[in-house]
Write a structure and sequence with these properties.
The chain is of the alpha/beta class and about 375 residues long. It folds into three domains: about 170 residues, no CATH class; about 40 residues, no CATH class; about 110 residues, Glutaredoxin (3-Layer(aba) Sandwich). About 45% of the residues lie in helices and about 15% in strands. It is flat and about 70 Å long. The two termini are about 50 Å apart.
Length: about 375
């Protein structure tokens, strides 16, 4: 039993640390997934707390996993892990059984898994954590108390510092469809290996004051126009498709006069796009850096646009800056959230291909990349 318990301890500890590290690469992404749950549950008032909850949950996963491996205060850690896995199992079970979520975000965007697989994973973890919880007597600290506390302190600092970095400077590993090197028009297409939804035409008729549904192949034997009144028809999904959505959706860039510039921008050999979700980040925090970008782009005659889901507010915010003449385009909020994990984020596109993307903390690097822009070469790193 002792060996079995310690094998379970190592497996659970490593998996929690791994799960936390993968999500620490993009805590904003987890906060968006939380907001999806809040929307379904009618608790959107919690949206403002999503990012803080995301950071704390990720840090807890890493710290708890490390504490379990080190054998520190195993009874307390066992209780915390048990409560957490019960909560996770409820979430993934709800996501799977309700059919409202394709993914729960358990391993972030770098390792997407279906809600069904996530649920099974958490059921397995629940069993293993219960095994640990009821057999803590077999687990002993690996190191002395002083060394253990020092290691846990370092793990705690790392869990928060790594998230701070990605929140300010973009994810270290970019697993989103807007990663550098991707061609946006190609990412807007349904994958070649996609399997479409399997549907069946379903009719809704009224009979005797009640709605009756049936398919084209299963009309009632007593069907008659005098007793059945047509209400509606729709395509009912009987088997969901696989990989049948484009990685990038709703990529549309329109002017305040509703002119669509999407095609024109994606065909240009060089263009700068500044994605600004809203005016929540004060312009003063990124103005100086963007002035350098705007200046270099003007010298190179590279067009510059700002893309926002709050175009009027952003236009007002930049009204007294040297780049006030930059046109602010309307963009879908979800698309911008996917493209810009920091608010704002700047892109350089070449014929629709993402040649470089930078957080507002690295706008100086973007300006340098524009400075080297030529028909043959363009450099840029995160």
């Amino acid at each position: 039993m002792k060996n079995l318990v310690n094998i379970a301890r190592v497996f659970v500890g490593v998996l929690f640390i791994f799960s936390g590290l993968v999500k620490a690469n993009d805590p904003v992404g987890l906060s968006y997934k939380m907001q999806e749950f809040f929307l379904v549950w009618g608790t959107t008032w919690m949206d403002g707390m999503a990012l803080a909850l995301s950071v704390l949950m990720i840090a807890f996963e890493i710290i708890a996993g490390a504490a379990l491996l080190l054998g520190w205060r195993i009874r307390t850690v066992g209780w915390l892990l048990l409560l957490l896995i019960v909560f996770f199992t409820f979430l993934t079970g709800y996501a799977y059984l309700s059919g409202k979520f394709k993914s729960c975000g358990c391993f972030g965007d770098c390792l997407p898994i279906t809600s069904g697989v996530s649920f099974l994973k958490d059921v397995l973890l629940l069993v293993l954590i219960l095994l640990i919880f009821f057999n803590t007597k077999y687990i002993r600290p690996v190191f002395s108390k002083g060394i253990t506390l020092l290691l846990l302190l370092l793990v705690t600092l790392f869990s928060f510092a790594s998230q701070w970095y990605t929140l300010k400077y973009l994810p270290v590993a970019d697993c989103l469809p807007f990663k550098k090197g991707n061609n946006i028009p190609q990412q807007m297409k349904v994958p070649a290996n996609a399997v479409p939804d399997s549907t069946v035409i379903t009719f809704i008729y009224e009979k005797g004051g009640k709605n009756v549904e049936f398919t084209a192949e299963s009309f009632p034997e007593d069907f008659d126009d005098s007793t059945y009144k047509f209400v509606n028809r729709y395509d009912k999904v009987i088997r969901p498709g696989i990989n049948n959505e484009p990685p990038i959706k709703a990529f549309g860039l329109t002017t305040q006069a509703d002119a669509d510039l999407t095609g024109e921008i994606l065909e240009r050999d060089g263009v700068v796009l500044l994605f600004v979700e809203d005016a929540s980040t004060p312009v003063e925090k990124w103005q100086k850096g963007f002035e350098g970008i705007y200046s270099e782009a003007s010298i190179k005659q590279v067009p510059v646009y700002i893309v926002s889901s709050s175009a009027l507010a952003v236009k007002a915010a930049i009204a007294h800056t040297p780049f006030s003449a930059v046109e602010v385009l309307n963009g879908d909020n979800t698309m911008i959230r996917t493209a810009a994990r920091t608010n704002p984020t700047v892109y350089i596109l070449r014929r629709g291909t993402i040649a470089g993307k930078w957080s507002y903390k690295n706008f100086d690097k973007a300006a340098q990349a524009i400075k080297t822009l030529s028909p043959e070469t363009l450099t840029g790193t995160n």
